[in-house]
Amino acid sequence: MMSAERGAAANTLAAYARDLAQASHALPAGLLAADLDALRTLLAGWQALAASSAARKISALRQFYAFALEDGARADNPAAALARPTPRRPLPRVLTHGDVAALFARLAERGTARAADVRLLLLIELLYGSGLRASELVSLPRRAVMPGREYLIVRGKGGKERLVPLSARAMGAAARWLPHVPVASQWLFPSGKAHLTRVRLFQLIRALAAEAGIDPAAVSPHVLRHAFATHLLEGGADLRALQLLLGHADIATTEIYTHVDSARLVELVNRRHPLAHMGFAAIDGAAATP
User: Fold this and answer.
1) Which of 12, 14, 159, 253 could form a disulfide with 8 if both were Cys (CB 3.0 to 4.6 A apart)?
2) Which residue, among 17, 68, 74, 22, has the nearest Cα to 45 in the 3D structure?
């Protein structure tokens, strides 16, 4: 149901399957026969978990029992009465403009003589220049990049497609990488019998960060996606446009990127607000007029 009707991503399906298997193992009578008291006892054991993890586990239970009720496997939904914890949305870690410049400076030093370096350049261009999720990036089909086409068609969460602009830099990097991709390959970033894995992408980026003199623990594919969003917003991008670029279903998810430096906001008001161009002489003159 989650796959066919809701179009849930593979990672979501794996997480729900894992949560339900663990819950079934922990419940004395098993998952299907559990009552509300048993579920509350189960929840008590989740108190040490992060609110986001507990919320996902409760969501898995609620959807499982709703499905069981609809399918006739149960006469009730004991999870409907479970309270959902409210996860605190943490502020994303973001690279500074200097950090990003250091990464690209290191890429320039490595050059493009080796296929691995050309691939890494394109990966970073697409993460920081287009804001792709790691799973979206590594699973791009070979036909996603076409000569002369200034956008990608990306299949994101829930199987939803969106258009993602390609910068001139990314198009140039793609043009250098495509000759290294076998014509028969299904993937833009092939590796073995499938495509580059998210784990390998993570490793490549951390290694690059270390070479660029940046703490590897502070850099990941998602951090580069955060940097893309934050730097666009700082440059004056519209929040709604940013939502479309990132593929967020709810604009509330995009609003997390409004965590701009307070000093920058003060500077913006002092520079752009009409009062910033009205001197005190004008105010004094108006006060002196009867």
Assistant:
1) 12
2) 22
